[in-house]
Structures are given as structure tokens and as C-alpha cells.
């Protein structure tokens, strides 16, 4: 399939599945693109997709970007999900250890240059893992941030050069939590402690009442995205 044919397919699928369920899109995605993977950060949206995918295509790869500085609760959520579903998440590590990063760029790079830190510990590893696939699935939603407002359920990811599926793009936070409660899905307990969006431990803080749900990410910086979805 050439790029023009692929773009036509993507446009048609985006229209066709706009008003259909995430499960319907997931089922079509894994059938149409056998070489597909789910990116999991163990946040609320991603654990929903893990649960859906286990019911639809349990052998589909699910990976996570292990920055080495996640909250312990995030690692515990990973372990609990693996035990419940009998799966093994694919661990994707940065090329540099934290000590190597500190040696090259200084201690606590996330404080002086969080964008460079994200590139080293997230974006570059993501680029490497996605080279192995034709498509990937993410948990981004349109109402999470202005930068995500125009997200389509199916789109061509020009940054990484593959098809991108966003089954929950049209969902609200309430939709996500209704699914979690109805299906008794394991989730990160930090969500119950005012962490609606959970990243690395050093760059994530609780959100106060009335704040934007992503206000706790990279607080004190203009940065609002780690670079995975731009």
C-alpha cells in the first residue's frame, strides 16, 4: 500500500469510526494492522485500553517507556495489571542510564531542561520501538489539552511514520472512569490523590481544585507535552 492509498484508508476509517465504540475501532485496527502495538503509561485511559485489548486481542504487544523515574505506584500498577491479565509489558528503556545522563548533561536535567530530558528518556526510545510496527494505539483524548483538541480517532503520525489509533479521543474523563468502575479495572492509586495526569515523579505534582487537569505536569515551565503526541 502506497502513502496515498494509506491516507485514503485512514481518512475513511476516521469518518467511519467517529461515532462508533472504542472496542469497534480496536477490533478493526488489530485485524487491519497485525503489526500494531499499544503504548501504555499506566494512566486511567491506558488501563482502560489494556482491559479492552485483552478482551479483543490479548496477544497484541503492549509497551511502556520506562524512564527509570516513574512513581512507585506506577510500577506497582504495572505489576498488578501483568498479574491480572497474565501478560508481560514490553519494557522500553532509554539509551542512557540516569548516571550517564547526569554525567553528560548535569544532575537533575529535568529541572534545567525538561524538554531535553523527555527527548532522552521518552521520545528517542519511542522512536526506536515504533520502528518495529506499522501502527500504534494511544489513550489520548481531545479534552485533555488544547494541543489535543483536533485529534482524530485514526490518523497518520507524520512524526513517527505510521498509523495512529486514538480510540478514546471522543471520550470524557467521566467516560473513562465509568468504564474503570463498571469493569473493575486496576488503576494507579495516585489518581485518587489529585493526580489526574501522571508522568515522571520529578515532573508531576498534585492538581488543586479548579486547576487544569494537566497543570501538574512540568509545573513552572511552559511545557505541556513531552513530545510523544506532537
TrEMBL record:
Residues 36-206 form the Phosphoadenosine phosphosulphate reductase domain. The active site is at 226 (nucleophile). Gene3D superfamilies: HUPs. It holds the Pfam family PAPS_reduct. The keyword ATP-binding does not apply. NCBIfam families: APS_reductase, cysH, PRK02090.1. This is Adenosine 5'-phosphosulfate reductase.
Amino acid at each position: 500500500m502506497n502513502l496515498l492509498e494509506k491516507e485514503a484508508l485512514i481518512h475513511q476509517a476516521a469518518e467511519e469510526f467517529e461515532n462508533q465504540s472504542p472496542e469497534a475501532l480496536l477490533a478493526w485496527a488489530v485485524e487491519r494492522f497485525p503489526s500494531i502495538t499499544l503504548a501504555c503509561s499506566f494512566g486511567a485511559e491506558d488501563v482502560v485500553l489494556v482491559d479492552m485489548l485483552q478482551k479483543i486481542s490479548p496477544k497484541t504487544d503492549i509497551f511502556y517507556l520506562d524512564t527509570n523515574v516513574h512513581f512507585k505506584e506506577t510500577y506497582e500498577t504495572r505489576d498488578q495489571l501483568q498479574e491480572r491479565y497474565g501478560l508481560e509489558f514490553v519494557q522500553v528503556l532509554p539509551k542512557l542510564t540516569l548516571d550517564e545522563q547526569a554525567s553528560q548533561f548535569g544532575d537533575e536535567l529535568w529541572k534545567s531542561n525538561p524538554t531535553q530530558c523527555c527527548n532522552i528518556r521518552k521520545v528517542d526510545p519511542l522512536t526506536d520501538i515504533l520502528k518495529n510496527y506499522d501502527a500504534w494505539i494511544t489513550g489520548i483524548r481531545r479534552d485533555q489539552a488544547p494541543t489535543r483538541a483536533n485529534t482524530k480517532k485514526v490518523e497518520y503520525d507524520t512524526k513517527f511514520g505510521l498509523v495512529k489509533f486514538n480510540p478514546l479521543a471522543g471520550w470524557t474523563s467521566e467516560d473513562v472512569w465509568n468504564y474503570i468502575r463498571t469493569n473493575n479495572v486496576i488503576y494507579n492509586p495516585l489518581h485518587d490523590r489529585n493526580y489526574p495526569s501522571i508522568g515522571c515523579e520529578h515532573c508531576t505534582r498534585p492538581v488543586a481544585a479548579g486547576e487544569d487537569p494537566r497543570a501538574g505536569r512540568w509545573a513552572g515551565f511552559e511545557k505541556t507535552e513531552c513530545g510523544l503526541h506532537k
